[in-house]
UniProtKB/TrEMBL annotation:
Single GO biological process annotation from the record: glycyl-tRNA aminoacylation
Family the entry assigns: Belongs to the class-II aminoacyl-tRNA synthetase family.
Protein's job: Catalyzes the attachment of glycine to tRNA(Gly).
Top EC class of this enzyme: ligase
Species assigned in the record: Aureibaculum algae
Gene behind this protein: glyQS
Principal location listed in the UniProt entry: cytoplasm
Annotated InterPro entries: aa-tRNA-synt_IIb, aa-tRNA-synth_II, aa-tRNA-synth_II/BPL/LPL, Anticodon-bd, Anticodon-bd_dom_sf, Gly-tRNA_synthase/POLG2, Gly_tRNA_ligase_bac, GlyRS-like_core
GO cellular component: cytoplasm; extracellular exosome; microvesicle
Binding annotation for substrate: 101, 218, 265-269, 372-376
Occurrences of domain Aminoacyl-transfer RNA synthetases class-II family profile (ranges): 143-418
Recorded superkingdom: Bacteria
Name of the molecule in the record: Glycine--tRNA ligase
Subunit structure: Homodimer.
Alphabetical UniProt keywords: Aminoacyl-tRNA synthetase, ATP-binding, Cytoplasm, Ligase, Nucleotide-binding, Protein biosynthesis
Amino acid sequence: MIKPEDQFKKVISHAKEYGYVFQSSEIYDGLSAVYDYAQNGVELKKNIRDYWWKAMVQLNDNIVGLDASIFMHPTTWKASGHVDAFNDPLIDNKDSKKRYRADVLIEDYCAKIEGKINKEVAKAEKRFGDSFNKEEFVSTNPRVVGYQEKINSILTRMGKSLEKEDLVDVKALIEELEIADPLSGSRNWTEVKQFNLMFGTKLGASADSAMDLYLRPETAQGIFVNFLNVQKTGRMKIPFGIAQTGKAFRNEIVARQFIFRMREFEQMEMQFFIKPGTQKEWFKHWKEARLKWHLSLGMGEENYRFHDHEKLAHYADAATDIEFKFPFGFKELEGIHSRTDFDLKQHEEFSGKKLQYFDHEENASYTPYVLETSIGLDRMFLAVFSNSLVEEELDNNTTRTVLKLPAVLAPTKAAILPLLKRDGLPEVAKQIVEDLKWDFNVFYDEKDAVGKRYRRQDANGTPFCITVDHETLENNTVTIRHRDTMEQKRVKIDDLREIIKKEVDVKHWLQKMN
């Protein structure tokens, strides 16, 4: 069985080798936690973004889009609380001189305990076979129950300490748990301090008159300050949502785990404006709706779970994360938050402008409550990519590396392969490319034996390979090969478009949400 850390190394290596993700400025030894999306990566990323946008905006008649600027007036960030409170608790190791997020050190400690739980479950599963009841075992086995109670106790204490900004107790917890520096093994820690994550910059031609600005640390505030503009020009009635995708920037001191935590990243957010008092039902609705979206991609229900927040932001009355099982364990993929009326009221106070909605049915004005769904596009990319990369044992005792991307998201939908580079086969293959490229991203490849080309496309995540051979010249048929099953069929060239469309069409995939 492949260790999770070895699997993750394979994910990172495969992403580079097949043109998905490169280290930024690699020829200059790169920048830490900054990455470039390569020729295949940019297509996969775009397809994920489009899949989200269609589900969120196109299929909901009460949700519209927005593309707000990265630069915003600096008072925006004062109003939102980012200037005063957008901090991470950091701790330094005096021996290794390395800096860590204190909360992440504690969470990683808990993840190791969770690993012990998983080992106990795996052993019991092996012992009891088909009669094994996982839920019953986890809730009754004394050792597992003890492990879980320890995790809950640690996370609850950490959450309360962070909420009260009791950084002394956060350090005390690290010391009590005897958490060591992952690199040096040293337990020689400094005090825990808060560090603001926003990148500062300047706006203006001269140093004297330049205004201090920030690169936005999130996309949500662009939606809040435009709430009334969108509502009035779109004649929107509550409940309605505003969706946005775009870059955000955070000066992460401990950026790690490849593209999971970066300093420049992309968010896909939707702020849903609702009548005060209805937030519980909308929170439940969006929890269910967002999980259905994830499950529509067929990446395994067992790879998702909800994690309700112990520590709520001061403005929230409910918050949960959809966590995904990455190679390094379950981690946050999407957040769903009931933000009350905090954001709009803050911007009202700091701007002096009213941001209220006039409800004609109630014949009254009020400040709407907000229900937020926020997903990291880069994290979604990593979830899809890492989940799809598998090594399969074949019947002939060989293995193949295959990237089983959901076909709707795959960068290239079909590779067109002439069996030989002669006898008119390349010309027919290129004509198929010309016909299909209006509807799909397709690829032409004539180099190497056809079996080697199949393997290359398997590793690249291409759902279909279409082979042109001498029989094609006789009856206009080709061989179409399915990536996941390796099944091959003889079909007419004229039928190719419909065969491919049936597998990659967004409608075919999103209808699984219903």
